[in-house]
Design a protein that fits this description.
This protein has 230 residues and is of the alpha/beta class. The chain has a single domain, classed as TIM Barrel. The protein has helices at residues 2-19, 38-46, 57-66, 85-89, 101-113, 140-147, 172-188, 206-211, 221-224, and strands at residues 28-32, 51-54, 73-76, 94-98, 118-124, 153-160, 197-199, 216-219. It has an eight-stranded parallel sheet with strand order 7-6-5-4-3-2-1-8. The longest helix is centred in the first third of the chain and has 18 residues, at 2-19. The protein starts with a helix and ends in a 6-residue tail after the last helix.
Length: 230
């Protein structure tokens, strides 16, 4: 069932990319394995999945140990507390939820001690929702300028979780705004930094996100179904 779901999602990605005038290869699928059993994750990886996303650092650490020897990228897509940064940078290939200079500085300092450069995305609060974390769009360029001074962080792009709507079309303007921010920011920092990743879109709205310019989508429940405690 998981393999069939992945095949269906990949087909929908291909169709959405075509509608936006792009190849399917321009969109990376992050399979969200939050609260998913290791056996199900193994089935997804056996189906050709190359990238997993987790929300919690300690859950990811447990699963990574169980997946030793397998080839995949691991992304943190949930909030990161500063006291878990050391564990995170030794668990994940990319941290998608950097939203403060305090957190970025902490990642940079600990990455220096580990002699590594950590890939990150900047989380943008595109809906200006008080219950969500993320950099406000009017502060984004200044924030990027600050991060560019940190030698052990590589800013790969932007990430967003727009507001949820029952009418999925209502989210389209937020994705469109993220694409505009992404393009404008790349133009302004051209020659100093190139961001290639725009991570937006989940199980209920990833097709719209792709149509509006997403290069990475995060899909979990449409592949694994309802979550169960591991």
């Amino acid at each position: 069932m998981i393999a069939e779901n992945i095949q269906r999602i990949q087909y929908l990605i291909e169709m959405a990319a075509a509608r936006s005038g792009r190849q399917a290869e321009s969109v990376q699928l992050i399979v969200v394995s939050k609260m998913v059993k290791v056996e199900s994750i193994l089935e997804a990886l056996a189906s050709g999945i190359q990238c997993l996303g987790e929300n919690r650092v300690q859950e990811a650490q447990f699963k990574k140990a169980a997946l030793t020897g397998l080839d995949y990228e691991y992304h943190l897509i949930g909030p990161l507390q500063t006291n878990k940064v050391k564990l995170a940078i030794n668990t994940f290939d990319c941290i998608q939820t950097v939203d403060s200079l305090k957190l970025a500085n902490r990642i940079d300092r600990l990455a220096e001690l580990e002699d590594k450069v950590v890939k990150i995305l900047i989380q943008v609060n595109i809906g200006r929702e008080l219950q969500k974390t993320g950099v406000m769009e009017d502060q984004l360029e200044e924030f990027v300028q600050e991060l560019m001074q940190l030698e052990h962080i590589s800013v790969e792009g932007l990430m967003a979780i727009p507001p949820y709507f029952d009418d999925v079309e209502s989210v389209r303007p937020y994705f469109r705004r993220m694409k505009s921010l992404f393009s404008t920011l790349n133009d302004r920092i051209r020659g100093r930094l190139k961001m290639d990743t725009l991570s937006m879109g989940m199980s209920n709205d990833f097709e719209i996100a792709i149509e509006e310019g997403a290069t990475m989508v995060r899909v979990g429940s449409a592949i694994f179904g309802k979550r169960s405690i591991i």
